[in-house]
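FORM 7B: Structural annotation worksheet

SECTION A. Query
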Amino acid sequence: MSILSELTEGKAPWNQSFLGTDAYKFSMMMGGRPGEEEVFYLSFRKGGRLYMPVDLATVIEELLPRVGPKERNRDHAYLILNGFDMYPEDMDTLMLAMANHDLEIVYAVPKGEWVDPREPVLTLRGPQAIVSWLEPLLVGRISYQMQVATALLRASTPVDLTKRKDARAFMDSIATVTCEEQKRLTIEACRGALEADLDAATEAQRQEALRNLDRHITVDEQGYYDAVAAQCQALIDTGVTPDRFFEVGLRAATCMDQHLIALKACKDMGFNLTSNVYGAWLLGMTPVGTLGHEGIMRWGGDDELAFRAHMAALPRVIFLLDTNDTLRVGLPTAYKLFEEYPDRMDGVRPDSGDLEEQFRAFVDGQANLRTHRRPWIFEDGLNAERVIRYERLRAELCYPERLTLYGAGGYFIDRPEFTPYKRGAISMIYKLSNTERFGPTMKFGNELESGDSGKQSLPGVPVTCVEMATGTIVVCQEGAVPVGYRTYTSGDSRLRPDEVPSRPYIDAATSHLIETCQTGRADAVKRSHS
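SECTION B. Predicted structure
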């Protein structure tokens, strides 16, 4: 019996459970407004032009679980048991949204078209409960399938998969996958690429190519398990005990099945904390997660307002510092709340910029506080080498081990994977861009916004449009498409120039929203220093 079969035998599948997402989605529902309308958009920051091999509406239908009242009560009881004490009405909001598939696709790159970095790939609108819930599995799957299809199209005439040297290299790149579901998604992505070659190949040729792919791809669950276990061992070898790490890599996995195999390896190696709630339920691990960027952005980008909302809902919050600015906004706000609530054990985590500089500032800043020291979590590109470096810094600053923790995502999940088509290769993201109460919102961060560097997101309800007179591809706003433009549609890839920009053209309305959000960020910095 396979690793996955042993794990799931007799258990409810993830697509019949509310739990198939990250734990911080539930904590942010508790500190948010689950029934209010929000807009999220899917995009990628780097990696060049990518091809869309699948129909995104169909993918969303596949990812949304079918959950009945019995499953709802089971999942709610599990969440309460693990500290996510959601109000019954919030669970009802989520259940109703799931049952109705209450999502509006505002914009989606059509199947068979190409898209450039930082353009919207997909823009969704719906109640916070469901439009946020969808993120982890959507990001991992679409990131993988777009990269596979693009690699195939760049490697060869799609049906000629064995003759050319570059085509053979592509075949080698997908020769081994982690699970049967990843194999299915690989073939599905290749089928989408083959359909781009309608003029050059017959249907019989395409079907033969797919049969060849099916015979060629090997599933190696044990090999993947072993590779993840080796990653775990490298962290253990740093001298940091597993109880100081937690796994946060569901978005890096191609599918839930891949992630479950990785979690089994993590658990067997002594790592018991994960953000995957379904995986925690299945494996007897502990689900963890409190606050992500959206949890601040849905409160108008106001760190203090967001932190307080989550503190009111949760016994412990890890404040995310960089939505506006780590040193100028996030940390000063955290210090204020540490002193105001001296008996709590809230902590902080950064997500961009110079983490070592920020950690020094965090430790130094606490020296002037009239309260006990708080937890710090290192994330963002974590690996064994960085853990060793951060531990040396921790020892230099005499900060307690028990208060210095580590979160690792892709390190556990996609770096041990056999294929090169990893989420980190293109930095695919899914960001909140508009809220019912506060309107357009952006994530900023502490990295230089130049080329494909930086983590600044788009505000509003972004859609990709074409200027009909010139064929220029432009990011616009839904409901405010300028005269002379139309929404990007099937066949428009022929309008794209050969050169791929790292930043898209932005229309005047979107530029205005960006300026408004930038002003809000500047005001947040001023308030923090007043």
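SECTION C. Observations
The chain has two domains: 31-64+101-174+179-219+420-512, 266-408. The chain has 20 helices and 20 strands.

SECTION D. Sign-off
Analyst initials: ____
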